[in-house]
Design the sequence.
């Protein structure tokens, strides 16, 4: 469970840094750059799957999958909270972020939150299941130096 929370926070902070950097550079309206957050999700989800295998070589497919999915769920919820806080601090950001491919034409913060939740959870499920197809047969051992 410790790895799950740690990697969920890593995903959240990396996505937060991406969006904050894009906003500071005036690139918050570029939906292609916003889609780059999937890189962080895939990278840290893969790292979590690897860490779970190293820490417990006998971890089951289901346990590892649930760990990956829970870490992504934590990240999605924290990112939604971050968006809510950011929109309340800077209301004009709702107009900037609502110009996107997936959550286009959201008129309210609640619509944006619902769209982000479903998009985030669908992406999390796809990434988690896809990576588990690789990790289900991989055996990793913790190595120690002599």
Sequence:
């Amino acid at each position: 469970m410790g790895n799950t929370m740690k990697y969920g926070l890593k995903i959240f902070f990396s996505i937060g840094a991406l969006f904050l950097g894009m906003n500071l550079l005036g690139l918050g309206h570029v939906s292609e750059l916003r889609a780059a957050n999937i890189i962080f999700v895939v990278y840290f989800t893969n790292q979590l799957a690897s860490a779970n295998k190293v820490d417990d070589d006998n971890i089951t497919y289901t346990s590892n999958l649930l760990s990956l999915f829970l870490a992504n769920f934590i990240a999605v919820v924290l990112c939604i909270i971050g968006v809510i806080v950011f929109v309340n601090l800077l209301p004009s950001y709702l107009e900037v972020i609502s110009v996107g491919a997936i959550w286009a034409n959201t008129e309210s913060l609640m619509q944006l939150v619902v769209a982000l939740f479903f998009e985030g959870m669908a992406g999390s499920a796809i990434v988690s299941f896809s990576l588990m197809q690789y990790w289900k047969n991989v055996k990793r051992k913790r190595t120690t130096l002599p």
In short: Helices lie at 2-24, 31-34, 37-55, 61-89, 93-97, 109-135.
